[in-house]
Amino acid sequence: MKSLKLLLILTTAAACSSATAEEILRSPDEKIEVSLRTDEGNVTYSVRLGGDAIIGPSSLGLKPNDLAPLEVAKVTRSSADNVWEPVWGSQKRYRDHYNEIQLKVEGDAAQTIIFRAYNDGIAFRYQIPESFKFSDQVYAHEASEISIISEKPTAWFPLSQVLVSDAVDLNTWESGNRKVNKNARYDFKPARIRTPFTVKLSEQACLSVHEAAVVHSDEAWLNLDGNTLTVLSNLKTAGGWVTPWRTIQIADKPGGLITSSLIVNLNAPCEFEDTSWIKPGVTLWDWRAHGAHADDGFEYGLNTESYIRFIDFAAEAEVEYLMLDAEWYGPERDPKSDPKTAIPEIDIEQVCAYAKSKGVGIWLYVNTKAFQNFDMDETFSVYRNWGVVGIKHGFLGGGSHAKNEFSHNVAKKCAEYHIMYVVHESEKPSGVERTWPNILSYEYVNSMLDSGTRPAATPSRVINNLFVFGLSGPVDRSCGMFDLDSYITREYCHRQIPSTVVSQTAQCLLFPSGLVTLPDFPDAYRRKADLFEFIAQLPMSYDETRVLDAEFGQHITLARQAGDEWFVGALADEAGRKTSVTLDFLEEGVTYDLTLYEDAPDAHYEYIGPMNKREAMTQKVTLEPQATRRELYQVKKITAKKGDMIPTVIAPGGGHCMWIRPQAATHLTR
Questions:
Q1: Beta strand 71-84 with 94-106: parallel, antiparallel or unpaired?
Q2: pLDDT tens, position by position, 502-513
């Protein structure tokens, strides 16, 4: 990782908390204005975007209780402008450009309130003096608030670790008891709310509340009272400690939230000197294929032959990886299952050696029990000898200080052995992949087929997943199911997917992740090889990302650049969409070859019958393969130049993809 430019300016001034004082902090482009006030022991902030108030007076500080005063003794200002290159990400370079105020608080609850304003949002955190003896009674109450100003604020947020809410009118919101209709939806209003908490304030303003650099802390939650959010935190620490950043991404349009770099900018730089072994990409995955039947009659399962077939297809399609999921080393809930010893049906050394000979990397699932009950260095030494490139860590159950640190320690241990890392049942992403870039993804989104009781993500919810879970960092959606009409009979495929196959393809580009984990089996991808080529080409690390058009819950069109090529993906809600994509992001004077992957004219996301196996059991029916319109698609090839408009017709619940690359004869070398 390279630091390309750094500018730092410091100024200091005295402040007095006995009288009203106000400090103005503006973003570098001056569109965001923060007013920080100290008045009779209270420290508050308010925010304007383009001159319009979007956050009213909101409290700051750590206190023994809500009524305790804070005495601000000194104000320090600084600015920084630093451009850095990630090991991988949605941009080739990130600009860390901000203005900062630090409010030094003296007295029993001594602390420094650090507040930053970026062009894409604001962030604040609290630092305990190094020489100070920490007391959880003195800092028992975090006063942090976000008082939203809007005539009709509409919000979306996590109902659980993986499920996003429907649109919520904050003017009528009241928390309620958890009442779950297991066959349809999670119908409850939690008293404590996870982040990201995304709000549309108006047609000209939206924001998302989250946190960054959650490393030595519990995750924070939110309490919603009217239009005011209060941060709920559990602080147990020591002198010199800082809280995670409380973040508010701010944009005039929804797409600005997706392209925001606020979260990663607030994390520490990469800790590794050698990152050449960290290679984002696409992986095949065995878990959802158990019970699938190949065209020659072979049934996929936990055995060597199944993995050989996966590896052969990966090499054929130029897919980088194969992931072996749970049970390969024994029952995953058995603490005696040794992660260094495969079950008799699997010759793990043969599988790894064969994969290496074919240029395919192997990922292995290992759960927390195995990490706790077996020496980690011994395990990773064995994996290094086998040639394993990545670990999927299951059953973490993240969120607490201890579990977050455990996950980060596993990630750092992986790095010692040059092993990449994906974490499931995880803590929420908070940008720490900047610090430990071998962390490629988190299961912090509704994985399509998990749980026989969890409701499937409707087309509109899939879009909102991008504006909630997708704003937190890289997430493992495990999209890319191609055999939509038949997969439901397999062992670990629990429910129907309301999606077209082109939507499945587009989601592989749209969801931020360093690793796309594909749920289907080789024969399904071979049958649609012309469509699968789009996924196979995805590098999962990009030079630039642009949101071309987006609206919460309705549609999104996004373009990502990798070298001379562009990949464009679009989704539509249950109504479908007719629109066009203007190629104004291409290079002037170059003719491009475009491959269009489209829903067929009669494609549709709907399926017939029960949503999941439990619902089918209740109705006393059997879920069987059925012909739907979900798999109908078409592929076209055209040429185009900068500024051309490409008509796109997206089916209900469908998608649209483009692979754009310059013709060799017209390409101008940069």
A1: antiparallel
A2: 999 999 999 999
Which pairing describes strands 3-5 and 71-84: parallel, antiparallel, or unpaired? antiparallel
Alpha-carbon span 27 to 100, nearest angstrom: 9
How many Å apart are CA 608 and CA 485, to the nearest integer? 10
CA distances from 286 to 306, 324, 491 (A): 8, 6, 12
C-alpha span between 646 and 650 (Å, rounded): 13
Between the CA of residue 7 and those of 99, 101, 260, 435, 623, what are the distances in Å?
11, 16, 21, 21, 62
Buried b (16+ CB within 10 A) or exposed e, 437-460: bbbbbbbbbbbbbbebbbbbbbbb
Amino acid 623: pLDDT: 83
pLDDT on residue 452 = 75
47-61, 284-298, 609-623: the lowest-pLDDT one: 609-623
Q: What is the pLDDT of residue 173?
A: 84
How many CB atoms sit inside 10 A of residue 573's CB? 23
CA distance 90 to 42: 40
Directed axis angle between helix 304-317 and helix 529-536, to 10°? Answer: 80
| HEC secondary structure over 591-629 | CEEEEEEEECCCCCCCCCCCCEHHHHHHCCCCCCCCCCC
Q: What's the full length of the chain, in residues?
A: 670
Beta bridge partners of residue 45, listed in sequence order: 36, 58
> How many Å apart are CA 275 and CA 270, to the nearest integer?
9
pLDDT band of 669, cuts 50, 70, 90: very low
| DSSP three-state, residue 243 | coil
Identity at 392, one-letter amino acid code? K
Q: Is-contact 414 385, C-beta < 8 A?
A: no
Q: For residues 482 and 490, give the distance between their C-alpha atoms in angstroms, rounded to a whole number.
A: 14
125 neighbors 244 (Cβ within 8 angstroms): yes
pTM here is: 0.95
For the purposes of burial, counting CB atoms within 10 Å of the CB of 76, is it exposed (0-12), middle (13-18) or buried (19 or more)? middle
What is each CA distance from 366 to 120, 370, 376, in whole angstroms?
38, 7, 11
Tens-place pLDDT, residues 344-399: 999 999 999 999 999 999 999 999 999 999 999 999 999 999 999 999 999 998 88
Q: How confident is the model at residue 51 (pLDDT cuts 50, 70, 90)?
A: very high
| Residues 412, 69: Cα–Cα separation, whole Å | 41
Note the pLDDT tens digit of each residue in 72-87: 999 999 999 999 999 9
Contact in structure between 33 and 101 (CB atoms under 8 Å) = no
